[in-house]
Amino acid sequence: MLKGLIxxxxxxxxxxxxxxxxxxxTLIEAGPCYVTQVRLPEKExxxxxxxxxxxxxxxxxxxxQLGHLKASELPPLRFLRExxxxxxxxxxxxxxxxxxxxxxxxxxxxxxxxxKGFAGVFKRYxxxxxxxTHGASDRIRGPGSNGATxxxxxxxxxxxxxxxxxxxxxxAQGLKIVLVDAERNLIGVHGAVxxxxxxxxMIQDARKQ
Length: 209
Known about the structure:
The protein has a six-stranded antiparallel β-barrel. The chain has a four-stranded antiparallel beta sheet with strand order 5-4-3-6, with no helix packed on it. The longest helix is centred in the first third of the chain and has 8 residues, at 63-70. It has helices at residues 63-70, 121-125, and strands spanning 4-16, 22-30, 33-39, 48-55, 77-84, 95-96, 106-112, 117-119, 163-165, 169-181, 186-190, 200-205. The protein contains two helices and twelve strands. It is extended and about 70 Å long. A hairpin with an 8-residue loop joins strand 3 and strand 4. The protein folds into two domains: 1-31 and 97-116 and 161-209, Translation factors (Elongation Factor Tu (Ef-tu), domain 3, Beta Barrel); 32-96, Double Stranded RNA Binding Domain (2-Layer Sandwich). The protein is mainly beta. The two termini are 17 Å apart.
């Protein structure tokens, strides 16, 4: 059985559990999704299901995307994402809703983090700063020395420097489902989810149970 959905982050709220404790919850509008393609080990070499989410006007899609969906007699769908799995009972055209998940299950939520633009090492890597004395009054927020001398005579790749921050694929692992509302296609997970409000997310079974 497929345990995966595409959704849209609505925002954060809180609910109270049976003991009266406030639980921070991220609400996600998940599905309904359509199965747009099924990949089989005999043909593609691996098992997966491609899901489509968010109906749009046909002019929003390319002719290739429209042809791919029209061949399966599906409506124009803005987002297509693939979910790997061991086996599937689904076929092209099936609809997948939030009913595949239940309260108490653990899921991984994949999203794109908020873009922060060009950031320095204070914001990007939490450098603690330098002394403001001994002639360094204008280098307090600088990264400091970052290379060796003659050997190797260069700066190693991957070292912490200023640069573009955010707008990366991030996975929040092992989040607990605390709310499933099938009527409104809503899933509530305990904790924060990467990305801004309205951002696209993928929900799937937690890999680390």
